[in-house]
Each structure stands twice: as C-alpha cells, then as structure tokens.
Design goal:
This protein is an alpha/beta fold and about 270 residues long. The protein folds into 2 domains: about 5-240, Alpha-Beta Barrel (TIM Barrel), CATH 3.20.20.60; about 240-270, no CATH class. The chain is built from 11 helices and 8 strands. It has an 8-stranded parallel β-barrel, surrounded by 7 helices. The mean pLDDT is about 95. The structure holds 3-methyl-2-oxobutanoic acid (KIV).
Length: about 270
C-alpha cells in the first residue's frame, strides 16, 4: 500500500543543511514530467531539478536559450504531481530574471504556484540582488556557478571553467556572494575537482556538483544522460543504465506483435 502523501516527510531546507553538517551526500536529478518524477522520488532522490536542460534533453533544442517560462511552468506542474518526498527546484529560464529583483520575483512566483519548492538561476555577484529579494520574500534560491549554460554564447561553448588561479578566485568570490545574499545551495558545473572542493570547504551552504569532481556536497545529472536514454552524453557522465536499448527493444517487440496480429490477444481485449 502506498503511504498517503500527507505522511511522506518532504525534503526541506533544514534537511539539506543537516546533510552538509553530517557529511551526507545529496542526490539530485533533473525531471521534466510526472512519470520520471515519480520513479526518481521512489528511488529516494533528494532534489528534483526541473532544469531548463529540458530544452536540449527532451524538446529537441540546440541549447537552453529558447526555453520559455510557460514551458517551465507546465513541466514543474507535472513534476509536482509525481514527487512526494523530493524537494522540487525549478530553473528560471533565460530572459526571465536578469533585469532585476522584480522581474525575478514575478517569474519565480509562477514556478512556485505551479508546485516548485525553490528556484534556481545562473550567475554570481551580478544576481545577488535577485537572490536576496526572493529569499526575503519566501522563495528559496539555489545558485548556479562555473559553466552556466545560458551564457553559452559569451562563454564560447561547453568549456571547463575556473582553470587558472585568477578565475578560480572570481568563482570563490561569487560563491561567497550568493551565500551572503541568501542562496540555500549552489550548483558548481564543469570545473576542476580541486576548485569545487575548495569552494565546498569555504561555504556553509551545500554545493551540488556536475562535472566538478567528487568533493562537492552532492551531485546532479541530467536524467537522460544518467539513464542512457541518449546515445551521446558529456564525458563526465557515467551511464547508470541503458534505457535507449530497453526502450528500443520494447518498441520493436510491440511493433512486431501488432504486425503479427498477436497483440491484442484475448487476454487484452474486452
Ligand atoms: O538545467 C539543468 O539541468 C541544470 C543542470 C545542468 C544543473 O541546470
């Protein structure tokens, strides 16, 4: 029997702080719909990220830039139906927060009303006013530093960040400023492991790494990469399954059964 929703203890901000203090690793995966949210929640994933990676992972876009707030709202609502225990963090897409705290609040409020428990957006000191405003008005914010996919055009592609001492210093200062502004956690993407380890040691809030080595307080992956749904994934990704092969096999079996007339059989007919 499934435990009623009201009895499942939800992952909340104090749980994340306690995990960092106890040295327990946090698990995070992207989710863009109800069925995957339900499975990842059942598997005990702590945080579900309704990431704007939805654009390239499932909507067939080249990058995250075309993703709209309406698309994020509808994915967030679907994930909220599937998630019982996991904290839901939803991305503010490109163009919905950069101009200031008011714009960021208006956009974030739509995601919270759709069922998100927190929002994430990219940037360091330059978005500190947005982080502070949202945190002070009831919306927890996860920050995102290192490779920030919405800046792909200025960063010149998917490049490892903070490779030299000067840029590692800037990253550390950005991390301290998002913490100071009130962020409850920060994603560290695509950077040398020792830089992420240094930032993790310097911060009181948890760091969640992606392509940033093993010494962050948690890890996040795009779920289609993690489960092997696509035939290509970034080099830092370990494929923990081969969903592409499993789905292909199921689909071929279905098509063959229909063509042979063995589906539907009497057991599956009224
Ligand atoms: O949108 C996303 O999936 C993300 C992760 C890469 C952290 O922001």
């Amino acid at each position: 029997m499934t435990t009623p929703l009201s009895e499942v203890p939800k992952v909340r901000l104090p749980h994340l702080a306690a995990a960092k203090a106890a040295g327990e690793k946090l698990t995070m995966l992207t989710a863009y719909d109800r069925p995957t949210a339900e499975i990842f929640d059942l598997a005990g994933i702590d945080l579900l990220l309704v990431g704007d990676s939805m654009g390239n992972a499932v909507l067939g876009m080249d990058n995250t830039l075309p993703v709209t707030l309406d698309q994020m709202v509808s994915a967030t609502a679907a994930v909220a139906v599937g998630a019982r225990r996991a904290m839901i963090v939803a991305d503010l897409p490109f163009g919905t927060y950069e101009t200031g705290p008011k714009q960021a609040f208006r956009s974030a409020a739509r995601l919270i009303k759709a069922g998100a428990n927190a929002v994430k957006f990219e940037g360091g000191a330059r978005v500190a006013p947005q982080i502070q405003h949202l945190s002070q008005h009831g919306i927890p914010v996860m920050a995102h530093l290192g490779f920030t996919p919405q800046s792909i055009n200025t960063l010149g592609g998917n490049r490892i960040q903070a490779k030299d001492d000067a840029s590692a210093e800037v990253l550390l200062r950005d991390a301290l400023s998002v913490q100071q502004a009130g962020a409850f956690a920060v994603v560290l993407e695509l950077m040398p492991a020792q830089v992420a380890a240094r930032v993790t040691a310097a911060l009181e809030i948890p760091t969640i790494g992606i392509g940033a080595g093993a010494e962050t307080d948690g890890q996040v992956l795009v779920w289609t990469d993690m489960a092997g749904l696509d035939d290509q994934a970034p080099t830092f990704v370990q494929r923990f399954g081969d969903l592409r092969a499993a789905l292909l096999q199921a689909t071929q079996a279905y098509a063959a059964a229909v063509r042979q007339g063995t589906y539907p059989d009497p057991e599956h007919s009224f």
